[in-house]
Write a structure and sequence with these properties.
Elements: H1 5-8, H2 23-53, H3 60-85, H4 89-119, H5 123-181, E1 184-188, E2 193-196, H6 198-204, H7 208-211, H8 216-219, H9 228-238, E3 240-248, E4 254-265, E5 271-279, H10 281-299, E6 303-308, E7 313-316, H11 318-324, H12 328-331, H13 345-356, E8 362-369, E9 375-386, E10 392-401, H14 403-456, H15 462-487, E11 496-499, H16 500-514, E12 519-524, E13 531-534, H17 536-553, E14 558-569, H18 571-576, E15 583-592, H19 599-602, H20 622-632, E16 636-642, E17 646-656, E18 678-682, H21 686-698, E19 702-706, H22 709-718, E20 725-729, H23 737-745, E21 752-757, E22 765-766, E23 769-770, E24 776-778, H24 783-795, E25 802-806, H25 810-822, E26 826-830, H26 833-842, E27 847-851, H27 859-869, E28 875-879, H28 883-891, E29 896-899, H29 904-915
Parallel strand pairs: 12-14, 18-19, 18-20, 20-21, 21-24, 25-26, 25-27, 27-28, 28-29
Antiparallel strand pairs: 1-2, 1-5, 3-4, 4-5, 6-7, 6-10, 8-9, 9-10, 11-13, 13-17, 14-15, 15-17, 16-17, 22-23
Length: about 900
């Protein structure tokens, strides 16, 4: 059936739904089915949009299936509208079958999905979840804002860090460039070089290719100032280390470097060490030179003081501290004029001005003030100090202490004066000694005959008085010649060991009688003064002469002090007194409070015949005699005085280590001496020979006479009998008396010897000291003195001790033997030990003397042999090789020792002490 569009709205058109009796109902069906189908068609569209937008929905397939179902349902309603007017029931049925199948499938699937849908959140849950979601969104928004802020901050930091990195990279590039120019390298912690700069190539000689990859300190042969492990430990602890190392270059040259190490952290976390080295070999040498110069300045014996141009002290060395007493802290910053006396400051300014003006170094003598105010004589050298531009910026003052030089000059002047004085005294002494010799011969004759004549006059008449006057004058002349000999140190001394204090104590009564009542003697005797070796009579004369001199210096009375002490005279004292030997001395000081002595007179006080007393009040030989006795006794006398305050005479005499007192004189023998012994008289002065012969013959002695030594030897040879005594002058032509005695002793060993002389010199003395065992009769002598001395010598009949001297030097052995023979011993000598042992077998020996250094057999060995074979024979060991040899000899049994060169007087004294005489 044809249906047109227009017919659809025709009220007369009534399709198969004629059952619907009214048309409006048909249109209602048509409209309703149309709206339903429209709705069905719109729903799938919405579902498809939902599926597209919510692609995450897990049951999206249900939406697609439901959309198909809804479309099918809508299609059926569309067909229902169509079938109202066109009967297409078959198509409609087919459509409904499809719709039914879609519905069943949808229903089935939907029923199976109900649990899932039931599990879906409810609306409240969705709201709660929505609230949570909103909170999370809010938090996320805050986090996004914070993240945005952090991102901005990080961007700012990145920008800042980027700028820093750029700056660091720029500095690193500069550092790398500088490092490449410096003497440096970079190494790993294991020491392997990773970077070797151009400066290191120049310094060490190895190229980068040669150095990189090698151990740095093995390559450079580094010498470390400490253990490498300790240095690495400090480097790790502090991040840096600096010090000085010794490196070896490629050419083998060793250099000293100042090094600085720093740890560098790499971007990958690795650690490196940057080493920068500076060659300081030249600087070190310069520093060493500077230190040496500073040390030289500081250790200089001269005070060295530097100043600026204003005179302000800038430096002060140790010698300046020692010399001037100020420390550097006290003087640096002060003016140098503080050291200069005000009267000399203008000179210092003038000289400093000259030096500053470029005149060069200025040298002059001046004085400087020490801290305690003492003025020190100095030699000053002021030199300019210049800067690098050669401009004078200050002065260097070298101050040399010339106190010693001035003292030395004074000492030289004093020595010259003393030498002149000594030469003058020696010349006068020789003249006086020569005069005394002739005078003593004349006085022996004059006084001798005067005494003979005087003995013949029994009554006191004019002639006897004349003779007495002649004798008195002769005796005064004899005392005068004795004083001359004392001054000239030619008199013979017979020294004894004296206790200084005991000697002075024994003189107290005599000194009290000697001084006046208006004088007071003060005694200050110290036990330490000890003992001296001197002729007691001569020492008494010294004290008496000095006491008389003090008495005459105090006409109105005063105080006279005698004081003893001990003192050691050292080398410095002896340099000023060249005739004095260093050692321990007993000191006797005699001080008065008299009128004193002027400097002009004090230089001449010891001159003979010089006196300030009135004519006839003195001979001028008193102090000259004192001078001669002290000098001859090995001592020294000083005098000091100040006009108006008195004088002090200080006597120094060598101390000896033995206790002693003044010895008694030899026992007096009666004047009426008689004898019948034979005497050989030898005297070249005929007058002396005749009077001596007359005196001896008158006493009963038998006389043989000779005018000189050759004649005496001839007389002795021709005389067949005994000669008991040789009485001989000492000073004679050809052979002197001592040589004559030695010559006759070879054939007449039992003959005694008595020497006589008015001028013995050293013929029978050692430095004027009478040798042990030697007998002397000084001229002039009286008849009684001659007879007493002859009888004394003839009465000493003790047998001489036998001494054997062993020395390979024949001259020394002979000298010792002759000296001991002259001293009264039976002495002989030999040159080798075998001869000495042979002689010991042949004769008894009382003393054996041996040198310790011998060519064939050492003296030490000889002593050992002698000790075994002759244990009772004392041995005296002598050596010039010092104390060690002598100590060994003493340990081996030597009774005594002497060190060469041997003093002959000391030899006799040592022999005497060993033998026990």
């Amino acid at each position: 059936m044809d249906i047109s569009l227009g017919s659809l709205f025709d009220t007369n058109f009534m399709p198969h739904a004629a059952c619907l009796r009214t048309p409006s109902l048909v249109w209602i069906h048509a409209a309703a089915d149309g709206l339903i189908s429209l709705a069905y068609f719109l729903i799938p569209v919405a579902l498809l949009q939902l599926a597209r937008r919510r692609s995450d929905v897990p049951f999206q397939w249900m939406l697609f299936l439901f959309a198909i179902f809804i479309v099918s349902c809508g299609a059926t309603h569309v067909l229902d509208v169509i079938t109202l007017w066109t009967p297409i029931y078959r198509f409609q049925a087919l459509s409904k079958i499809v719709t039914a199948m879609a519905s069943l499938a949808t229903a089935t699937l939907f029923i199976r999905s109900v649990p899932k849908f039931a599990a879906m959140p409810s609306l409240s849950q969705w709201e709660h979840a929505n609230q949570i979601l909103k909170a999370e969104i809010t938090q996320r928004a805050g986090a996004e804002r914070a993240l945005t802020s952090l991102t901005a901050e990080l961007e700012d930091r990145v920008k800042s860090r980027t700028a820093e990195l750029k700056e660091t990279n720029a500095r690193l590039r500069e550092l790398t460039s500088a490092l490449d120019l410096a003497h440096g390298f970079i190494r790993g912690q294991d020491g392997t070089v990773t970077f070797w700069c151009h400066g290191s190539e120049e310094l060490y000689g190895w190229t980068k290719e040669e150095a990189i990859g090698r151990n740095a300190h093995q390559l450079l042969k580094t010498k470390f100032p400490a253990a490498p492990a300790d240095i690495e430990s400090e480097l790790e602890r502090r991040g840096a280390w600096q010090g000085e190392l010794t490196h070896t270059t490629k050419t083998g040259t060793r250099i000293l470097v100042a090094t600085h190490w720093a740890i560098q952290q790499g971007s990958a976390g690795q650690t490196s060490v940057v080493e920068i080295n500076n060659d300081i070999s030249d600087r070190l040498r310069a520093d060493e030179i500077s230190r040496e110069l500073a040390a030289i300045v500081d250790s200089s014996n001269d005070a060295i003081v530097s100043t600026d141009l204003n005179g302000t002290i800038k430096s002060w060395n140790r010698s300046a501290e020692s010399l001037l007493g100020y420390s550097a802290a006290e003087m640096v910053g002060n003016s140098i004029e503080q050291l200069i006396p005000p009267r000399l400051r203008q000179d210092q300014r003038r000289i400093s001005t000259l030096v500053a003006a470029g005149s060069g170094a200025q040298r002059y003598e001046s004085v400087r003030l020490a801290k305690e105010g003492r003025e020190i004589p100095v030699a000053v050298t002021v030199s300019p100090i210049r800067n690098s531009a050669n401009v004078v910026v200050g002065t260097s003052n070298s101050i040399h202490d010339i106190s010693a030089i001035k003292a030395q000059k004074d000492a030289v002047r004093l020595l010259e004066e003393q030498l002149q004085q000594a030469q003058k005294m020696e010349t006068i002494g020789r003249l006086a000694g020569g005069i005394a010799h002739d005078f003593n011969n004349l006085l022996t004759v004059i006084n001798g005959y005067a005494q003979i004549l005087l003995a013949r006059f029994e009554k006191d008449d004019g002639v006897k008085t004349i003779v007495e006057n002649i004798l008195g004058s002769g005796q005064r002349a004899a005392r005068l010649t004795s004083q001359l000999l004392a001054f000239s140190r030619k008199q013979v001394l017979q020294p004894k060991v004296l206790n200084t204090n005991a000697l002075l104590e024994s003189m107290k009564p005599m000194l009290k009688r000697l001084i006046r009542e208006d004088m007071e003697i003060v005694w200050r005797l110290q036990d330490s003064s000890g003992c001296i070796m001197i002729d007691p009579l001569q020492m008494e004369q010294v004290i008496m002469n000095l006491a008389i001199n003090a008495r005459d210096a105090m006409p109105d009375g005063g105080l006279f002090t005698i004081e003893t002490s001990a003192k050691r005279l050292d080398e410095s004292y002896c340099r000023l007194h060249p005739y004095v030997t260093p050692g321990e001395y007993a000191v006797i000081e005699l001080t008065d409070t008299g009128h004193g002595i002027s400097p002009e007179i004090i230089k001449r006080v010891f001159d003979p015949f010089f006196t300030t007393k009135e004519l006839g009040s003195g001979t001028g030989l008193g102090l000259a005699t004192v001078y001669g006795i002290i000098k001859q006794s090995g001592g020294h006398i000083d005098v000091s005085s100040e006009v108006g305050f008195g004088s002090r005479f200080c006597v120094h005499l060598p101390k000896v280590g033995e206790d002693g007192i003044a010895c008694e004189e030899e026992e007096a023998i009666a004047v009426e001496v008689k004898g019948n012994e034979t005497i050989l008289l030898v005297e070249d002065d005929q007058g002396v020979r005749e009077i001596a012969a007359g005196i001896l013959r008158g006493a009963g002695f038998r006389l043989l006479e000779a005018a000189d030594s050759p004649e005496a030897i001839l007389v002795a040879e021709q005389h067949r009998g005994e000669i008991d005594l040789l009485l001989t002058d000492i000073v004679m032509p050809k052979l002197n008396g001592r040589e004559l005695a030695k010559a006759l002793a070879r054939v007449r060993s039992d003959m005694k010897v008595l020497f006589m002389s008015g001028y013995p010199e050293n013929a029978i003395t050692e430095d004027g000291v009478l040798e042990a065992g030697v007998n002397l009769l000084p001229k002039p002598f009286s008849p009684g003195e001659l007879l007493r001395k002859v009888r004394f010598v003839l009465s000493t009949s003790k047998k001489a001790k036998t001494i054997l001297v062993l020395d390979d030097e024949e001259a020394i052995g002979t000298l010792f033997a002759e000296t001991l023979t002259a001293a009264g011993y039976d002495a002989s000598s030999c040159r080798d030990a075998k001869a000495a042992i042979t002689l010991m077998k042949q004769r008894a020996i009382d003393l054996f003397i041996t040198d310790l250094v011998m060519p064939d057999q050492e003296g030490i060995e000889t002593i050992s042999i002698m000790r075994k074979k002759y244990p009772d024979v004392p041995i005296l060991a002598i050596s010039g090789y010092g104390g060690e040899y002598l100590r060994v000899a003493h340990l081996l049994g030597a009774s005594g020792t002497l060190e060469k060169p041997v003093d002959l007087g000391a030899l006799c004294n040592k022999v005497k002490s060993i033998i026990g005489e």
